[in-house]
Amino acid sequence: MSTSWIVIGVIVLLVLFAFGAYNRLVALRQRVDQAFADVDVQLKQRHDLIPNLVETVKGYAAHERGTLDDVIKARNSALSAQGPAQVSAAENQLTGALGRLIALSEAYPDLKANANFQQLASELSDLENKIAASRRFFNNAVQEYNTGIQQMPAALFAGMFGFTRKDFFDLGASRAEVETAPSVKF
């Protein structure tokens, strides 16, 4: 009789542990999803700001049509991206295009002095800082989640429960492009 109680006790402990592991992994997955939603909100604000910035620049730099078109194309690509990997790649392309657009202001003193442009550029700079903070929070949540599904003994249950590895929001191959200041030639 005591052997059956021990077996039942072990089974109960395993079931309780599985429930605990499952609940912890669900909480970690929800944190990742919430962090990505936060990044998405910041990116949406940036996407809404871009048309105003482009229109302001158009009046001063009409012959820079290629740069303006690149920004609009990159914005449209970023708007249609789905999932962290696609969003990350599209946003990196948009960041590069925005860098070239902002660099135009150096070549046009009247544009640089324009109050509307200054306000939009300031808002964009503020949003870029918020996006960077949101990305860091997201990547931290992904790191905790990925660690959680790989650590023993939760790793024994993670695959069974359908928990799979998440991708980081990374600059990837375009890191050098983003970190390099754009060159403006006339």
From TrEMBL:
<keyword id="KW-1133">Transmembrane helix</keyword>
<keyword id="KW-0812">Transmembrane</keyword>
<dbReference type="InterPro" id="IPR007156">
    <property type="entry name" value="MamQ_LemA"/>
</dbReference>
<dbReference type="Pfam" id="PF04011">
    <property type="entry name" value="LemA"/>
</dbReference>
<dbReference type="InterPro" id="IPR023353">
    <property type="entry name" value="LemA-like_dom_sf"/>
</dbReference>
<dbReference type="GO" id="GO:0016020">
    <property type="term" value="C:membrane"/>
</dbReference>
<feature type="transmembrane region" description="Helical">
    <location>
        <begin position="6"/>
        <end position="25"/>
    </location>
</feature>
<comment type="similarity">
    <text>Belongs to the LemA family.</text>
</comment>
<keyword id="KW-0472">Membrane</keyword>
<protein>
    <recommendedName>
        <fullName>LemA family protein</fullName>
    </recommendedName>
</protein>
